[in-house]
Protein: DYW domain containing protein
Amino acid sequence: MIVGLAINGLYEEALKHFAMMEAEKVKPEHLTFIGILSACGHSGLISEGRRFWSHMIESGIKQSTEHYVCMIDLLCGAGLVDEACTLVKNMTISPNPVIWRTLLVGCKKNGMLGKGELIAEWLLELEPLHAENYILLSSFYASVSQWEKMSLVRMKMKEKRIKPIVRVRDSNSICPGPKTLRCDICGIFVIGRNFDICGGSGGIKLIGLIREPTSDLVREVLHRVVDEEKENALGEHSERLAVAYGLWKTKAPAVIMVVNNLRICGDCHEVMKIVSKINEREIIVRDRFRFHKFVKGSCTCKDYW
Structure:
């Protein structure tokens, strides 16, 4: 219950249920703390998160990778990247690539390029063919206007033939194709592939917002980049392509659900809010950490994730 509430953005309810457990003398287990630490992280409750972390240790529960990911995310979200690094350094288990990626995301969020590059270098040694590592680094460079470095990362991905995928789902759909198949997957998008199934580039541009950056800050930064890089930097974000395809192939009131293994970026988050309002559609995006439910121009995360 607590985990379900947390990943769906109902943080206050998650905290209330944890308090009810304590009042009833029900002993929390490791999954309970994953949910409650996640709830604290996504609502910016630093002191509460630290308290639950200490509570977990005092309860004799062995810290897992998932617990550390939640705590690192909590600290980085509050700008406490150095404290998060210290936590990783003192981990009771060996940090795996998931831990390093979470720390890299935290560095990106706080604009700590030097530290982020060191983490990315380590990640690429551990997993030289893992698409998410390259995407995170490319996105990091874009966020700090390091466009040449971003282009080099994209070139490496092409050289290594590394292409991320994202799925878009609609439970009421019938998948188009040579044969009509009843299933819940409308499309699987591989970045860098020609999208003939959407009718070429015209199909992708069905939604005008898909190709355009939404924030004034992003527009200001991107004006220095050549047109092709502008399009690639934001227009090819997989969430946008998936939502474009969902709108192309389904009709209201069908809910569009996008499943991605990366944290949604701020610009795509704004796009989803606008598209949900203009098209009067409910859009659910499952990123690496939680569900985002976009309805009538707002998101259940309340713009904090």
Observations:
- Confidence is low (pLDDT under 50) at residues 170-186, 191-214, 216-228.
- The longest helix spans residues 113-126.
- The longest strand covers residues 185-190.
